[in-house]
Design goal:
Layout (H helix, E strand, L loop, with lengths): L1 E7 L1 H5 L3 H11 L2 E8 L3 H7 L9 H8 L4 E8 L2 H9 L12 H5 L8 E3 L3 H11 L17 H9 L15
Antiparallel strand pairs: 1-3, 1-4, 2-3
Length: 171
């Protein structure tokens, strides 16, 4: 199954929207396989946002993202990167369609509630940046989110690496 990274930004945390936003992803049928609250600092942000270094907004972005803890989430599902990007809406909240997270909860460019990976390649990089393998969990929800044909397609796909599982407890 595909995975992506979502970060609930400081404005989401300060406005008390974390539970509501997480619920939106869960109601869609996406599975949370990793989640933690973290305090980002300048060193972490310099590396994570290295592609923005030197741009006019970079220092303001760092100040914003380090203003409060954030919640990093790994979501799993079919075509999850594209699904989550559509759910979030365009980057500028006031331009996002109603019914999207940013369209319903944001008016801003920077204060736009969530960060979401923009490609499968970046999702892999971003997940590895924030999560150790031992912090990502494989489990069965027991719920029929996909039809049998979709699951058969998934089995045929080349699986990158081994599924991540909790280590067995020793007695």
């Amino acid at each position: 199954m595909d995975r992506t990274l979502v970060i609930l930004k400081p404005d989401c945390i300060c406005r008390g929207l974390a539970g509501e936003i997480i619920s939106i992803f869960e109601k869609k049928g996406l599975k949370i396989v990793g989640m933690k609250m973290i305090k980002l600092n300048g060193t972490i942000l310099d590396e994570f946002y290295a592609h923005h270094k030197g741009k006019k907004f970079f220092e303001d972005l760092k100040a914003f993202m380090s203003s409060t803890p954030v919640i990093a989430i790994v979501l799993e599902g079919k075509n999850v990167v594209n699904v989550v990007r559509k759910m979030c809406g365009v980057t500028i909240g006031r331009e996002a369609e109603p019914g999207t997270i940013r369209g319903d909860y944001s008016m801003s460019l920077r204060n736009n509630i969530v960060h979401a990976s923009d490609s499968e390649k970046n999702a892999e990089r971003e997940i590895a940046f924030f999560f150790k393998d031992s912090e990502i969990y494989e489990y069965d929800t027991g719920l029929p989110i996909y039809c049998e044909e979709e699951l058969e397609e998934e089995e045929k796909k080349e699986i990158k690496g081994k599924p991540r599982k909790l280590p067995e407890k020793e007695d």
